[in-house]
């Protein structure tokens, strides 16, 4: 018995050392300009990583919202080549990457249980208010990936006034009952409380093999090993219990609505008039193109469509997470997002004589530009 205990202790110590070393070795620190705080109506303190404009400033700021089981560094990675926030800031946008409650540097309030509805009803309004207070802008552009896209779409249906437009990247408002999604949902829920631990444990070996289950969430063949390893060690978070349960309910019943039945997010799509760009990936196992296209078709406002694949002249058919972390995503996907946002956020003219800066006329307003077909 003493020998077995010694072996188990040695294994535990080796595992702890492995975790600590590779977390230290691979984790990428944030490179944002500052971190602001947004306090929700129920007392949560959310972190907003801000990147100030690097070029001529644009009229509208951008709020970036991460997906399930990741934090804000998914949208604002410390290696700036794969930071969508840094890419947009270089074009003059004042960018804010949000940590939803229970993720990253967010700090809990009195209430510790939550679900997806709290992201839409409390976190998003608080973040929008904080961005507007920091910039003085009346409205904000949203960019969301996966669950973040769902937060943006649902939020635009409930409180559209402060939202000038949104980009929904791989947001499945219909739940495809296919085997890939079901397998991934079962695994994600079963491992929900150890997702971050497992990601950091396997990070050193990421990219050596390409398990089918993993391919549903990111095409590892379209992601370089160094980036994949650092992404797993930096961005991964556990899946909150209430959020995981709500997603399981949606998947089983093909729903997109609040738990209390008060808000049917899917039905609101047709009633929403906020401009939106829908981005899909051909190899996405969680939000297949047909599912994202259904969201586009149901949308009631001005809308655009972009399928990130070889049919559009790109180097690869993208998957779910490699819309952000794909080898050539910064050259092939990011510019399409930027172009759509630029068309809605003119460059501000330099202030003169104490007057407020004004939008420049003509092409800087994005007049006549269109990113993908609109209907």
Task: Outline the structure in words.
This protein has 375 residues and is α/β, with parallel strands linked by helices. It has a single domain, classed as Rossmann fold. Helices cover 38% and strands 12% of the residues. Strand 7 (276-280), helix 11 (289-298) and strand 8 form a beta-alpha-beta unit. Residues 361-375 have low confidence and may be disordered.
Poorly predicted runs: 361-375
| Rg from alpha-carbon coordinates | 21 Å
Oligomer: single chain
Distance between the termini: 71 Å
CATH third-tier fold name: Rossmann fold
* Strand order in the sheet with the most strands: 1-2-4-3-5-6-7-8
Strand content: 5-15%
Mind telling me the CATH class? Alpha Beta
- Report on the biggest sheet: 8 strands, mixed
Question: What is the number of helices?
Answer: 14
Report the order of strands and helices: HEEEHEHEHEHHHHHHEHEHHH
What's the rounded overall pLDDT mean? 91
Which architecture would the CATH scheme give at its second level?
Answer: 3-Layer(aba) Sandwich
Percent helix among the residues? 25-40%
Labels describing this entry:
single chain; 375 residues; alpha/beta; Rossmann fold; eight-stranded mixed β-sheet; disordered C terminus
